[in-house]
Write a structure and sequence with these properties.
The protein is an alpha+beta fold. The chain has a domain at 110-257: 60s Ribosomal Protein L30, Chain: A, CATH 3.30.1330.60. 65% of the residues lie in helices and 11% in strands. The chain has 7 helices and 5 strands.
């Protein structure tokens, strides 16, 4: 039995190869798509991480800039504080120098009384203390300045009158000996006697020595601020005293006046230094100008000679 080849070919089942190829192509395409998807996700995550890092870096940079600005501001403040401190130190140094000058003047004028122990000078902490025992200023039990005391206070006052930046506190002190019955009507206690003596000294310094009254204070301490023992005659003699204390002035007018005086001195010194610099610079400038003029003259002479030489006709051989 024979079959028609065409029929056989038509009845033959189709080949599976195209389907296999299609499945392979679809699988490869799916794998490639998945790979691209994964790459896209990774790129997106990397971009997000990069943006986060950039934001963090920007924030850190801003923070560092703020810290830098803060440090610069603190540096400026510290520099200003250092300059102010330097000015204060300079002012204090000047005050101490002036106070030392006052100390030296008092020591020179009162050397006899200092040698006898009737006057004591001490200087510490920007303050100058002058202790005068009562016997060189007053007679016993009296508040009026004695003739000898007037001479002593006149010399002290001459020094104090020349000081315009110190407050002068004059305080009276006594020993523990009670006021006698004879003086009790005038001075009931040592308080009154010490205060009356301090006021008398202040009035004398103002009226006779020309010390400005606005810079003086009178006070009485009685027996309550002893500097020696009241059990001995020598100790009681030391406790009976007038104390003159010089302290820095708290009056704004006085302080402003001193600053103005300092500024004027600095300005005068600057002008003097500038004038001196100019006078020193003038000879140098003149010599430089002369030197430059000589150089220019020589150059012109050389140029003229060269021009003249070039302008001459050459001789034929």
């Amino acid at each position: 039995m024979s079959f028609d080849p065409a029929v056989v070919q038509a009845l033959k089942p189709p080949s599976r190869m195209p389907w296999v190829l299609l499945v392979i192509v679809v699988g490869v395409a799916g794998a490639a798509g998945f790979r691209l998807y994964q790459d896209g996700q990774a790129a997106s995550a990397a971009a997000s991480a990069a943006r986060a890092k950039a934001t963090a870096a920007e924030a850190a940079q801003k923070e560092q800039q703020q810290k830098l600005e803060k440090l610069e501001a603190e540096k400026t403040e510290l520099a200003a504080a250092r300059d102010e401190l330097a000015k204060d130190v300079e002012a204090k140094t000047g005050e101490l120098a002036e106070l030392k000058g006052t100390y030296d003047k008092l020591e020179e004028r009162m050397k006899d009384e200092i040698a006898k122990g009737d006057i004591r000078l001490s200087q510490s902490g920007g303050k100058l203390r002058v202790d005068l025992v009562d016997k060189i200023l007053f007679d016993s039990g009296e508040a009026a300045v004695s003739t000898r005391g007037e001479g002593v206070l006149a010399r002290v006052g001459a020094v104090l009158a020349a000081i315009d930046d110190k407050q002068i506190q004059v305080s009276g002190h006594t020993d523990r000996t009670p006021i006698s019955e004879k003086l009790a009507a005038q001075f009931p206690t040592n308080w009154e006697l010490s205060a009356a003596r301090a006021i008398t000294v202040v009035r004398f310094l103002e009226e006779k020595a020309g010390v400005p009254p606005g810079r003086m204070i009178a006070s009485g301490y009685g027996e309550h601020h002893p500097i020696a023992s009241n059990k001995t005659a020598a100790g009681r003699a030391r406790n009976r005293r007038i104390e003159i204390l010089l302290t820095p002035s708290l009056d704004p007018k006085m302080i402003a006046r001193n600053k103005l005086k300092t500024a004027e001195s600095e300005a005068a010194a600057a002008i003097a230094a500038k004038s001196e610099t100019k006078s020193e610079a003038k000879p140098e400038a003149k010599s430089e100008a002369k030197s430059e003029a000589k150089t220019e003259t020589k150059a012109e002479e050389k140029l003229a000679a060269k021009t003249k030489a070039e302008g001459k006709p050459k001789r034929k051989k």
